[in-house]
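Tip: read the tokens left to right.
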């Protein structure tokens, strides 16, 4: 597949494909990271690459980079449930429960806001199909589908995220060996 090297959306689409949660898809976090970084270089205001880079960094075990990207996405787009939820996850992993709860509350508030309209189709730099499905599915988005209004114990919410990140990391190691 070829893309216009100056197309942020093209690089985002390739990054989404290479970092897809679909078990049958090729999963290549390093290649996904390259395309997502390029998408961010081209259009630094777009939060999609930031969110996806944060997810890829979680899988790669680079929590400092994950935190950078996810918090940037959450600041830039206060409607990003995933960015706030995963930023809370990272704080929970660090043992910083106050900040974890604050980010979780931000995710819950963002979930109450109407979702932003997804990108306009047929802008000319990529076709909607077959890239529509992976573009809408982030690695950890399913964990944000239904968030309880309040959670006194974040462990039951974040432990499955940790387990899934480990499975994805293992899938990467299995593919490379």
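Filled-in amino acids:
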């Amino acid at each position: 597949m070829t893309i216009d090297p100056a197309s942020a959306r093209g690089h985002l689409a390739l990054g989404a494909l290479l970092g897809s949660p679909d078990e049958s898809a090729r999963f290549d976090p390093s290649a996904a990271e390259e395309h997502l970084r390029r998408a961010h270089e081209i259009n630094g205001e777009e939060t999609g690459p930031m969110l996806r880079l944060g997810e890829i960094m979680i899988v790669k075990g680079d929590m400092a980079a994950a935190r950078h990207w996810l918090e940037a996405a959450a600041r830039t787009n206060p409607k990003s449930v995933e960015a706030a939820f995963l930023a809370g996850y990272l704080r929970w992993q660090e043992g910083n429960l106050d900040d974890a709860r604050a980010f979780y509350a931000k995710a819950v508030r963002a979930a109450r806001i109407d979702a932003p309209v997804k990108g306009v189709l047929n802008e000319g730099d990529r076709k909607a199909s077959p890239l529509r499905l992976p573009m809408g599915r982030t690695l950890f988005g399913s964990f944000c589908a239904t968030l309880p209004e309040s959670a006194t114990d974040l462990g039951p919410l974040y432990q499955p995220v940790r387990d899934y990140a480990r499975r994805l990391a293992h899938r990467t190691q299995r593919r490379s060996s």
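DSSP finds eight helices and no strands in the chain. The two ends are 25 Å apart (CA to CA).
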